[in-house]
């Protein structure tokens, strides 16, 4: 084996908090060879970010300290270098890019001056030379008009552009190692694909090593040579990417892989979620930290910490029962017909790995799915939108022209009773606004909404308020949407007190029932929202939404903010409830696989317009609109669903000034003059399949 | 080989963390933490109880009558007989302070209550309803704010004439714009919160949302502001008393006492100093307790610490 570029050995990091010293990362070891991409994969609280910051020795500035172990870069031991020496290494040998490019740039200085500043920190030279170099770097990372961009400030660039500029800045010192901390998490999926491609290209042409931190196994699958899976501050498993993803040996890795919805997982089938949630820093379990959530846990796991034992082929897993776990995973893997692209998800769940409720539900749901689809086509529309428009007036005054932000610009659709309608699109496509308009949470600029055939309007107050009983919403931010002064019992009872005449005792009963229905304990009613984890809070939000037995639920990015393993639990819960209560729902999300998993039919939005609707399977198998195909192609880590994948360049244009003709023509590889001038009609291209394209695929 | 070295290091390392935790437990242990933050609160509580007792039963606590003039002992420095000394009439300063407590607290507390009620109401209406009403209310508040508070109170008190009720009203009105502004800002911030949107989406009526979500969540900064206001109201009352617009009685309140002693500051420091300390003690105690109260009603600090 070649001399590693970076060697991290038994690294332990303490964080000093007002509550005392907490150990964020315990004895983690990994190394990175020159030109290699290593992915640190883990959920929130796994210590992946703090470990990466320790390599830069940035932890010193955040109440952290390296309490043990070593970090060696080339021949230099980093862990005890004084900060004055570290400063010279940072940017020159190791550079870092962050999750929020918006926040990482100083908003008052130009991009150019910040890049030049970085260069000046390490080299002597004329400012004008550095400026020219900066322009070249921006050009190198694919930023159009680099001379102009150099003179702009962060607020004038889009998120994708800023992340590119960030990469350019990181490259300015010619680093040997680039640390990328969730570089694409804040970006849209099409932009994410572009950035990942750029990173891969830079890596091979500059022979740079990359340490990529991510929670997204898809990203890891696409980028990594080797993967290090972290759980609760310890390495759970590490090894070559194909091995870790193809034949995982740690129950946590197996569980993570099982809990993501892949393009091949059967719709309506339950996801195999890992029970519980990752532990907080202050309450680390004894022994193996995964044991409370592990199906293989024995007394040995509860008592002693499993060492990271090396297996052949440079792989290791920290589990007492790794062989057993790997065997179960492999056995079920063998039953699989065509191998899944990403995960070896078994069709039959490995025994004991499920939440007890899971097995009860899974079988019935698989059989129900196709039947449901048949019956849907004949049922009545519950909610209809007719030419819905929402324009937000912007600016005006002070000599500036008044403009309209066309968030939703003429959308018609019909949602059948019992149907789950998925809504996808990049940010700025208007999907959330459309959701709010459907529920009439804000007045539309044009068009109308029909509920069971009658017009629903926010202006008809009495009728509107009554309709809230039937139309409920699950919000994206489960914490911000509950009153912090209310106990969760009061929160869940709020719709009851608004819409029903139940007395105190009856309300208590109903709340207990609801809490149990969403998988929480009835005795928790007197607790406050801050005492719960993200997943539990979302369960509270769901309980509130279903409290008055609504007919329709809007789930607006309801699972987007949650950890992967928790996300699966919530998706399962939503599916169960939909079946039990016969709900109709609109499910808005940017995670395409999740939407596909949960929805009967999917609508794709682009710049305020619906560009395609089709049954889920159909949409993924035969996307008719180039934009849909581009979205599918940009899902990381998946071999594309269709043979011809489309990659889109550029970014979504501003909704204040949408392009004429087909709104997608600026980014469409197939655009013609017709597309540039004439807006395509929303036409049928197949059974229950419509698309707005002149040349449907 | 590799693993044994790792294990050794791990062992050594664990020993160190254990030590760190033990040290930490000693340094910020529960008993110690309780003591360091609860002593001032306890003292503040005792001070307030004492001052309230002074207000209710002054003659039980004061050793002399406040109207007793001992011409044989004028301008005497603090001594065993006269704890805080005597003034230019030979009155016992300690007894004067004790007897002045009632009016001082009354002016302070009632003007704050009246001011907060009016200010919060106006601010809530302006913030929640918005639009033209907001503009009208807040421009009137702006106009009032352009006049210095004490001058405004002075004008009002002069127009209404002297007397306890009028002085309270004058101070209350002069403090209204400040409370209204803070309340309006709070209401507007809370109105945009997710849980208000959620409540609206549930179908709750605006009055329900205002009373159950918006007001309870907006109140905290106003409470803190009100406790601080208590101190400045007492001072404002003192100022008005000094100018002859206050409570004209033979028993001066703290403010009047302070003003009266001002002329003797060079020869008899105690006449001014002790009423001043009384005001400070009261304001400080109220602030400490107000702070703790705010923390106690904050659900984020309840439960786990």
Automatic annotation (TrEMBL), chain A:
Q: Which GO terms describe its molecular function?
A: ATP binding
| Annotated spans, Disordered | 341-362
Reading the lineage from the top rank, the first entry is: Bacteria
InterPro entries tied to this protein: AAA+_ATPase, ABC_Ni/Peptide_Import, ABC_transporter-like_ATP-bd, ABC_transporter-like_CS, Oligopep_ABC_C, P-loop_NTPase
Identify the main location: membrane
Annotated Pfam families: ABC_tran, oligo_HPY
Q: How does it sit in the membrane?
A: Peripheral membrane protein
Keyword flag Membrane:
yes
Residue ranges of coiled coil: none
Give the keywords, sorted: ATP-binding, Cell membrane, Membrane, Nucleotide-binding, Transport
Compartmental location: Cell membrane
Chain ranges of the ABC transporter domain: 6-257, 383-632
Cell membrane: is it a keyword of this entry? yes
User: What protein family is recorded?
Assistant: Belongs to the ABC transporter superfamily.
Q: What is this protein called?
A: Oligopeptide ABC transporter ATP-binding protein OppF
The organism named in the record is Saccharibacillus endophyticus
TrEMBL record, chain B:
InterPro entries per the UniProt record, alphabetical: BP-dependent_transpt_permease, MetI-like, MetI-like_sf, OppC_N
**Membrane-crossing segments per the record:** 39-61, 105-131, 143-161, 167-183, 222-247, 267-290
Keyword Transmembrane attributed: yes
Has the keyword Cell membrane been applied to this entry? Answer: yes
First-listed, main subcellular location of the protein, grouped into a coarse class: membrane
Q: Which Pfam families match?
A: BPD_transp_1, OppC_N
Which part of the chain is the ABC transmembrane type-1 domain?
Answer: 101-290
Superkingdom per UniProt: Bacteria
What topology does the record note for this protein and the membrane? Multi-pass membrane protein
| Keyword annotations | Cell membrane, Membrane, Transmembrane, Transmembrane helix, Transport
Enumerate the CDD domains for this protein. Answer: TM_PBP2
Q: Where in the cell is it found?
A: Cell membrane
UniProt lists the family membership as follows:
Belongs to the binding-protein-dependent transport system permease family.
Recorded protein name is: Peptide ABC transporter permease
């Amino acid at each position: 084996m070649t001399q590693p570029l970076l060697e991290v050995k038994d690294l332990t990091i303490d964080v000093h908090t007002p509550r005392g010293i907490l150990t964020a990362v315990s004895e983690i070891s990994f190394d990175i060879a020159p030109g290699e991409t290593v992915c640190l994969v883990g959920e929130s609280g796994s210590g992946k970010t703090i470990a990466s910051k320790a390599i830069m020795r940035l932890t010193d500035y955040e109440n952290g300290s390296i309490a043990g172990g070593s970090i060696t870069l080339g021949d230099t031991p980093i862990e005890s270098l004084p900060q004055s020496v570290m400063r010279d290494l940072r940017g020159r040998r190791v550079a870092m890019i962050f999750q929020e490019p918006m926040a990482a740039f100083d908003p008052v200085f130009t991009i150019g001056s910040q890049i030049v500043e970085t260069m000046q920190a390490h080299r002597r030279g004329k400012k004008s030379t550095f400026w020219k170099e900066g322009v070249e770097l921006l050009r190198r990372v694919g930023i159009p008009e680099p001379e102009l961009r150099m003179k702009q400030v962060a607020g004038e660039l889009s998120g994708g552009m800023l992340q590119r500029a960030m990469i350019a800045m990181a490259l300015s010192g010619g680093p040997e190692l680039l640390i990328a901390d969730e570089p694409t998490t804040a970006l849209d999926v099409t932009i994410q694909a572009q950035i990942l491609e750029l990173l891969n290209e830079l890596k091979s042409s500059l022979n740079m090593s990359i340490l990529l931190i991510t929670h997204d196994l898809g990203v890891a699958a696409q980028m990594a040579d080797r993967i290090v899976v972290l759980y609760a501050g310890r390495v759970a498993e590490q090894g070559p990417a194909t091995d870790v993803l193809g034949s995982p040996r740690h129950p946590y890795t197996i569980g993570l892989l099982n809990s993501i919805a892949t393009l091949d997982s059967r719709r309506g089938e339950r996801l195999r979620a890992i029970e519980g949630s990752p532990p907080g820093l202050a309450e680390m379990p004894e022994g193996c930290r995964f044991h409370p959530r592990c199906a293989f846990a024995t007394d040995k796991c509860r008592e002693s910490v499993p060492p990271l034992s090396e297996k052949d082929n440079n792989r290791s897993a920290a589990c007492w029962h790794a062989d057993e776990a790997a065997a179960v995973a492999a056995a079920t893997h063998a039953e699989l017909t065509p191998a899944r692209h990403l995960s070896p998800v078994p069709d039959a769940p490995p025994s004991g790995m499920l939440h007890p409720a899971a097995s009860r539900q899974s079988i019935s749901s698989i059989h129900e799915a196709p039947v449901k689809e048949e019956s849907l086509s004949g049922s009545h529309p519950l909610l209809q939108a007719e030419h819905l428009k929402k324009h937000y007036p912007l600016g005006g005054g002070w000599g500036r022209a008044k403009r309209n932000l066309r968030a939703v610009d003429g959308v018609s659709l019909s949602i059948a009773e019992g149907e789950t309608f998925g809504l996808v699109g990049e940010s700025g496509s208007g999907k959330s606004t459309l959701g709010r308009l459907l529920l009439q949470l804000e007045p539309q600029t044009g068009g109308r909404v029909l509920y069971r055939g009658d017009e629903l309007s926010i202006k008809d107050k009495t009728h509107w308020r009554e309709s809230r009983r039937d139309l409920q919403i699950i919000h994206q931010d489960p914490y911000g949407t509950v009153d912090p002064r209310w106990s969760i019992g009061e929160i869940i009872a709020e719709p009851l007190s608004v819409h029903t005449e139940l007395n105190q005792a009856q309300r208590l009963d109903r709340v207990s029932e609801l809490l149990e229905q969403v998988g929480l304990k009835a005795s928790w009613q007197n607790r406050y929202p801050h005492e719960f984890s993200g997943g539990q809070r979302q369960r509270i939000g769901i309980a509130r939404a279903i409290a008055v037995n609504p007919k329709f639920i809007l789930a607006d990015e309801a699972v987007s903010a949650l950890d992967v393993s928790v996300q699966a639990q919530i998706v399962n819960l939503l599916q169960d409830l939909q079946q039990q209560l016969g709900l109709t729902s609109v499910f808005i999300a940017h995670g395409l696989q999740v939407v596909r998993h949960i929805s009967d039919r999917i609508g794709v939005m682009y710049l305020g317009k619906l560009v395609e609707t089709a049954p889920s399977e159909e949409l993924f198998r035969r996307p008719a609109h180039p934009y849909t195909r581009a979205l599918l192609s940009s899902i990381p880590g998946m071999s594309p669903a269709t043979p011809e994948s489309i990659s889109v360049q550029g970014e979504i244009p501003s909704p204040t000034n949408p392009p004429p003709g087909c709104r997608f023509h600026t980014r469409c590889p197939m655009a013609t003059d017709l597309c540039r001038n004439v807006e395509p009609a929303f036409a049928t291209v197949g059974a229950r399949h419509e698309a707005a394209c002149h040349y449907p695929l | 080989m590799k693993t044994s070295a790792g294990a050794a290091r791990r062992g050594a390392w664990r020993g160190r963390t254990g030590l760190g935790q033990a040290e930490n437990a000693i340094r910020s242990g529960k008993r110690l933490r309780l003591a360091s933050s609860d002593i001032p609160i306890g003292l503040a509580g005792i001070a307030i109880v004492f001052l309230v007792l002074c207000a209710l039963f002054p003659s039980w606590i004061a050793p002399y009558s406040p109207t007793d003039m001992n011409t044989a002992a004028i301008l005497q420095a603090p001594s065993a007989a006269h704890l805080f000394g005597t003034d230019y009439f030979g009155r016992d300063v300690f007894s004067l302070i004790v007897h002045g407590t009632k009016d001082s607290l009354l002016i302070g507390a009632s003007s704050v209550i009246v001011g907060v009620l009016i200010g919060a109401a106006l601010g809530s209406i302006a913030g929640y309803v918005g639009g033209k009403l907001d503009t009208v209310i807040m421009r009137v508040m702006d106009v009032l704010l352009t006049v210095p508070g004490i001058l405004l109170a002075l004008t009002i008190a002069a127009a209404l004439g002297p007397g306890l009720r009028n002085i309270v009203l004058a101070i209350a009105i002069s403090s209204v714009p400040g409370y209204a502004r803070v309340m309006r800002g709070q209401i507007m911030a809370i109105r945009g919160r997710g849980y208000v949107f959620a409540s609206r989406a549930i179908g709750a009526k605006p009055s329900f949302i205002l009373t159950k979500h918006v007001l309870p969540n907006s109140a905290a900064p106003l409470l803190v502001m009100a406790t601080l206001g208590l101190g400045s109201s007492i001072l404002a009352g003192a100022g008005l008393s000094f100018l002859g617009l206050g409570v004209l009685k033979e028993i001066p309140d703290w403010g009047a006492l302070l003003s009266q002693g001002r002329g003797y500051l060079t020869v008899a420091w105690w006449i001014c100093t002790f009423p001043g300390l009384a005001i400070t003690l009261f304001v400080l105690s109220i602030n400490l307790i107000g702070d703790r109260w705010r923390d106690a009603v904050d659900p984020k600090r309840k439960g786990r610490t």
